[in-house]
Design goal:
Blueprint: H1 2-28, E1 38-43, E2 52-57, E3 64-66, E4 73-76, E5 80-85, E6 88-92, E7 98-99, E8 105-106, E9 112-115, E10 118-119, E11 127-129, E12 134-137, E13 140-144, E14 147-150, E15 157-160, E16 163-165, E17 170-172, E18 178-181, E19 183-185, H2 191-224
Antiparallel strand pairs: 1-2, 3-19, 4-18, 5-6, 5-9, 5-14, 6-16, 7-8, 9-10, 11-12, 12-13, 14-17, 15-16
Helix pairs in contact: 1-2
Length: 229
């Protein structure tokens, strides 16, 4: 019995360690625009007596924060902006954009933001971005933001810096999705609740460690004392 208990507790410790790593990463990115938190749940499998950690990305929309900056954009509804990187097209919800030296729209890392016809050239004084993604500069049409959704959201792969590799086919974002100019989307987690969850995980880990030490002591007594009889 102690051997099986030690094995079960070791698996529980591994599960809580994984949850702690993920929640700590979530907290570290709580101030990142458009960040999507990871969740770890314990799933039971046939023939197993311990939880198997399953990690998933929470794509729920975060709150909006008004900035009044014309190149700060947020998507209200499902979908992503598309940026061109050295590794191919990537998806992002972080909409704090900038202009490069020639006036092309880029993300914070310098990757080109893509429109329906390629990179977007924004040269002029007055920039208006309509709800449907149309960009109007000094009263003239300058392009339209490309907004997409993955056909299978579960295949999205996080790459850091708020970007996702599609992992599968894409289609145009739903008609209900629209752009909000002068605002950015915050991370979709509450830092206070995430901290409470982290403390709960640490306490559960500590309790399992105490149980493991107790079972190890019982096993030692069986081995050293009972075995001498």
């Amino acid at each position: 019995m102690p051997l099986q208990g030690i094995l079960n507790t070791a698996h529980a410790l591994s599960f809580y360690m994984r949850r702690q790593e993920v929640q700590a990463n979530n907290l570290a990115n709580a101030s990142s625009d458009g960040f999507k938190a990871d969740r770890v749940l314990g799933h039971a499998t046939n023939g197993s007596t311990w939880p198997v950690p399953v990690q998933d990305v929470d794509l729920q929309q975060g709150a909006f924060r008004d900035t009044a900056r014309p190149l700060d954009l947020a998507l209200d509804g499902p979908g992503f902006f598309v940026v061109a990187t050295d590794r191919g097209e990537r998806l992002t919800r972080g909409g704090s954009f900038h202009l490069d030296a020639v006036g092309r729209l880029t993300d914070g890392s310098g990757n080109l933001v893509l429109g329906t016809e390629g990179p977007l050239l924004v040269q002029g004084g007055n920039v208006e971005i309509h709800a449907d993604g149309e960009i109007v500069v000094d009263g003239a049409h300058a392009g339209r933001l490309r907004m997409v959704e993955p056909e299978q959201p579960g295949q999205l792969l996080k790459e850091g810096m708020g970007r996702f590799a599609p992992g599968g086919p894409l289609h145009a974002a739903a008609e209900g999705t629209h752009v909000r100019q002068g605002a950015v989307e915050d991370a979709n987690l509450d830092p206070l609740l995430a901290m409470v969850d982290l403390v709960t995980i640490q306490r559960a880990f500590s309790a399992n460690m105490d149980a493991l030490k107790a079972m190890d002591g019982v096993l030692g007594s069986i081995t050293n004392d009972v075995g001498k009889v």
